[in-house]
Design a protein that fits this description.
single chain; alpha/beta; Rossmann fold; Alpha-Beta Plaits; 6-stranded mixed β-sheet; 4-stranded antiparallel β-sheet; 10 helices; 13 strands
Length: about 300
């Protein structure tokens, strides 16, 4: 069952095409990721879906409701965490969560929502005294307390320490296991690959790839990647002719060789460097990732 339907969505700000013809669907019970660099149109898309922005054109349905036609009904059934949520500075963590719980017909328990994001020790702290990472966790708690059928999380782990990030990953996986639908935007590759059932990779307001992380990687790469940084080898076109190399990607002084024969490529690469009197330094051999997919399709890294 499709609980989010987006067809040919456009949203422009003057000459800036923030969302430029997006189409996708989200199935009930899945974690759907929207993956792209900052400025790709992820937040604008979310704000159109939850009724904060009026779209220029296109069709949008969330739980069968057009968010512009009946925003009250739709918002009572979803939870939302935005990147720049405003907090009441003189209210405590508990008071803010309690306030938000009154907005929904069947909210999660206040203590449970606070505990899920690890803010138990800050329940009586005014929000103005929270750190950036703690505010981010509180913002997620406000999305969780809604107990909505769909939870929209817009780059929820930005500013979190590694332990808090992984704790939130567990929360998201538990929500999926309980039948919730999660709409997640992120620019973290490991986050998308671990959590998402399907990913829409977007750039400059357009979907450039759509599918499961494993599918997107396998569709674009059957090779492994050899990656190293060396200023004198960055422009060496001879690397493309090394045994097994199918493609060379250069980003500044970083060289990525995609190869179907890692051992042969490594041997030839080391010999080539030695013949040139160069020390390769640190070399990484890895499988292809969503970062490689984005790099292949756009010619640049997703974090740029």
């Amino acid at each position: 069952m499709e609980c989010v339907v987006v067809e040919d969505l456009y949203k422009h700000f003057g000459q800036v095409r923030a969302v430029d013809g997006l189409s996708f669907t989200v199935s009930q019970g899945e974690v759907f990721g929207m993956l792209g660099p900052n400025g790709a149109g992820k937040t604008t898309t979310v704000e159109c879906l939850i009724g904060l922005l009026k779209r220029d054109s296109g069709r949008v349905e969330v739980l069968g409701i057009d968010p512009e036609a009946d925003p009250v009904s739709m918002k009572s059934r979803i939870g939302v965490q935005l990147q720049t949520a405003a907090m009441f500075p003189r209210l405590t963590v508990r008071e803010v969560v309690k306030l938000y719980a009154t907005f929904y017909p069947d909210p999660l328990g206040i203590d449970e929502a606070i505990s899920l994001v690890g803010l138990e020790e800050k329940v009586n702290t005014q929000t103005r005294h929270l750190s950036g990472g703690q505010l981010q966790r509180l913002s997620v708690a406000l999305a969780l307390v809604a107990n909505g059928e769909i939870v929209f999380l817009d780059e929820p782990t930005t500013g979190m320490d590694p332990q808090a990030r992984r704790a939130l990953w567990d929360i998201i996986e538990n929500m999926r296991n309980s039948g919730k639908t999660i709409f997640l935007t992120t620019h973290y590759m490991d986050e998308a690959e671990r959590l998402c059932d399907r990913v829409a990779v977007i750039d400059k307001g357009k979907v450039i790839a759509l599918g499961s992380p494993a599918q997107l990687i396998s569709d674009n790469f059957s090779e492994q990647a050899i990656e190293f940084t060396h200023s004198q080898l960055a422009d060496d076109e001879h690397l493309e002719s090394l045994p097994g190399v199918t493609r060379r990607q250069v980003e500044g002084e970083t060289v990525i060789l995609y190869t179907s024969e890692v051992a042969r490529t490594m041997g030839s690469l080391i010999q080539h460097a030695q013949d040139a009197g160069l020390d390769l330094g640190h070399v990484t051999v890895r499988t292809a990732t969503l970062e490689d997919v984005f790099l292949k399709l756009t010619g640049r890294r997703i974090r740029e």
